[in-house]
Structure formats: structure tokens, C-alpha cells
Design a protein that fits this description.
- The protein is of the alpha/beta class.
- The protein has 3 domains: about 45 residues, no CATH class; about 130 residues, Rossmann fold (3-Layer(aba) Sandwich), CATH 3.40.50; about 130 residues, Response regulator (Rossmann fold, 3-Layer(aba) Sandwich).
- It is about 45% helix and about 15% strand.
- The chain is built from 12 helices and 12 strands.
- The strands form 3 sheets. It has a 6-stranded parallel beta sheet with strand order 2-1-3-4-5-11, with helices on both faces. A 4-stranded parallel beta sheet has the order 7-6-8-9, with helices on both faces.
- Helix 7 links the parallel strand 3 and strand 4.
- Helix 8 packs parallel to helix 9.
């Protein structure tokens, strides 16, 4: 079946394509009678506007790029959902790419998105991104960028973050308030900044509650995986019998620790309390259920797109672009892997 165009509708009605276009857009200089006829015929013929041509005329593609470090994380899948829902409400298509925590892939993916003529890019930096020339270069060319979750002060753009230091503090504080006195912390390498801040929050909570910081209670893992949690739990079970609390920088790590400790006959939370971070879906189905910090990915995704959309509107209207840093609130979610605070 041949594609229905403005020219085809115009030919059937004996009017100009310009009149058809104006009628479909409710221009005031077109009579109501003509509008009714044009719209009725367009509907009966299942006419669809040429969005590509409209984009060319408007000098916009209505496509944005979204780069995430790892799609396997439940947090980042929520980010994707939030971005897509917010973008689709404004008529935007989202191209989602995964950097696999690689600086080189991140650079290549940004270049690919620019070649696709995206209107803007949303990025959470990879663990191995150590310089930001590739991001600053596209910002200088006029392509709006919003960083989320993993960000850098060396990039001048809008950002959506949580207060990782505060969240780490609150997680550790909750363990202290439920009676823990020897609290281990499990984290990845001190990159990116989120890892550093959660670690600093842990240290601050110990200091403010007059508990000594012991570097031997800090365990560094490479992949933040369930398997890494298993390995740390083996170390705790063998050599750290006095540990009565664990704050893990991810839920997956915390789950690995909890499962392995229970296999070793160590009761959770009677012998040791465990706190995760992110509030993945699995935290509700572990045995016992896992206490954690809620990191609202869906809300972060929506807000990240909203900031980009605001900048696109400012550019379209010839206004100066203003950057914002938006902080999304976190909260402790107490479950059965920690003792409850007595009221």
C-alpha cells in the first residue's frame, strides 16, 4: 500500500499541501469546515506525519542517548525505566548503551551517539573513567549532557546524585543504634567517588559514636559481586569472630556475605547484622530479608531526563542554559538481617 502523504490528501481534496498541513495543526487562518474534512480524511487513510522530516525542520532528532556502566545492576535497570518513561512522555526515543565499566567504550559510545545526531546524552561514568575531555568536548560543541549517579566536579553540566556520604553514615549509624560495636565495611576499589563517599560516611559514623576505626575491618573487593561477598564472609568466619555488624556497599555483596555466613552456622542477625545498599528486588526475598539503603533509581532516571529536557527547551528558545545539581533523598530500609531499634 503506498504511503499516505500530505500531497496525497491535498490531491484528493483539491487543496494545497500547505493548507492540509495547516489544517492538521489547527492554524487559525484555515476554516473549520476545511479542518474537519482534512482531519477526517487523514484519519480514514491512517495518515502518519513524517517525524524525520519534522525533526529536520526543527533541527532536532527527538532522540537522546543513555549510557550506563552495567545493565546487570537492578539500580541501573530502574534508571533506564525512569528515563524511558519520562522521555516517551515528551516524544523522545532513547538509545541505551552499556560501557561495561570501560573508559574506552564510554568514549566510543559517546562518539556513536553524536554520529546518530542525538539531541543530548545522559551518562553515569564508568569505574575506569579518569579524565573527562571526551565529555567536555561535546558540551563545548553545544550538545547538552547530564551526569547521574557517578559524576565528576570536573565536568560543567547538570547532575543528579544521591548523598553517598550521608547514606553511608546512616547505614552505619543504624547498625550502631541496634547494638553493633564491631562493624566491618565491604567496598570496591576507591574509585568512583560513590565508593569513597560511602566509606567516608562509615568512618564518620564510627567517629561520632566514639567507636574506633580499624582498617582491618575494611574489606576491598574487585567486582562487588555475590561471589566476592562469599570470599569476604570466609575471612570474617575464620579470623574476625568479634565482628557483629557488616555494612556492604552493594546489596549483591551483602547477600553473598549473608548466605555464606549462614552456611557456616553464623546466625543473622543474632550473631551478626548485615546492611546492604541500593534496595534491589532481591533484598525482599532473601532469608532473612536484607536491611538496606533505598537508592531510588526510577526517580533518578526521570529527574535526569527532566534536567536534559529543560536544557533542550532553553536552547530551542534561545535562552542561556542553566545547570542544576539535584540530590535525590535516600533512606534506611530496616528488614530482618539487622536487629530492630527498641522504641
Amino acid at each position: 500500500m503506498p504511503k499516505i502523504t500530505l500531497k496525497k490528501i491535498a490531491a484528493i481534496l483539491g487543496i494545497s499541501p500547505a493548507t492540509v498541513s495547516k489544517a492538521l495543526k489547527d492554524y487559525p487562518d484555515i476554516s473549520n469546515d476545511t479542518k474537519i474534512k482534512v482531519k477526517a480524511l487523514a484519519e480514514s487513510l491512517n495518515y502518519k506525519p513524517n517525524s524525520f522530516a519534522q525533526s529536520l525542520r526543527n533541527q532536532e532528532s527527538k532522540i537522546i542517548g543513555l549510557i550506563i556502566p552495567k545493565i546487570v545492576h537492578h539500580f541501573f535497570s530502574n534508571i533506564i525505566n525512569g528515563v524511558i518513561d519520562a522521555a516517551s512522555n515528551k516524544g523522545y526515543l532513547v538509545i541505551t548503551l552499556q560501557s561495561h565499566e570501560s573508559y574506552e567504550q564510554e568514549k566510543d559510545q559517546i562518539n556513536s551517539l553524536i554520529e546518530k545526531n542525538v539531541d543530548g546524552i545522559l551518562i553515569s561514568l564508568s569505574d575506569h573513567t579518569v579524565n573527562y575531555k571526551h565529555i567536555n568536548a561535546i558540551i563545548e560543541k553545544g550538545v547538552p549532557v547530564v551526569l547521574y549517579d557517578r559524576t565528576s566536579k570536573l565536568v560543567n553540566c547538570s547532575k543528579v546524585i544521591i548523598n553517598d556520604r550521608k547514606a553511608g553514615y546512616e547505614a552505619t549509624k543504624y547498625l550502631i543504634e541496634t547494638g553493633c560495636r564491631k562493624i566491618a565495611h565491604i567496598r570496591g576499589p576507591l574509585k568512583p567517588q560513590t565508593t569513597i563517599d560511602r566509606f567516608m560516611g562509615y568512618k564518620n559514623a564510627l567517629k561520632e559514636h566514639d567507636l574506633p576505626y580499624d582498617k582491618n575491618l575494611v574489606f576491598e573487593t574487585e567486582h562487588l559481586s555475590f561471589e566476592d561477598g562469599f570470599e569476604v564472609a570466609e575471612e570474617i568466619a575464620k579470623h574476625r569472630h568479634d565482628i557483629d555488624g557488616v555494612f556492604s556497599t552493594t546489596d549483591l555483596l551483602a547477600t553473598g556475605v549473608m548466605v555464606k555466613l549462614q552456611q557456616k552456622g553464623i546466625k543473622v542477625p543474632d550473631d551478626i547484622s548485615i546492611m546492604g545498599f541500593s534496595n534491589w528486588f532481591l533484598t525482599k526475598i532473601t532469608t532473612p530479608t536484607l536491611s538496606t539503603i533505598d537508592q531510588p533509581g526510577y526517580e533518578m532516571g526521570r529527574k535526569t531526563f527532566d534536567l536534559l529536557y529543560d536544557e533542550l527547551c532553553q536552547i530551542k528558545n534561545g535562552e542561556s542554559v542553566s545547570h542544576e545539581v539535584v540530590e535525590i533523598a535516600t533512606r534506611v530500609v530496616p528488614r530482618n538481617s539487622t536487629k530492630f531499634i527498641e522504641s
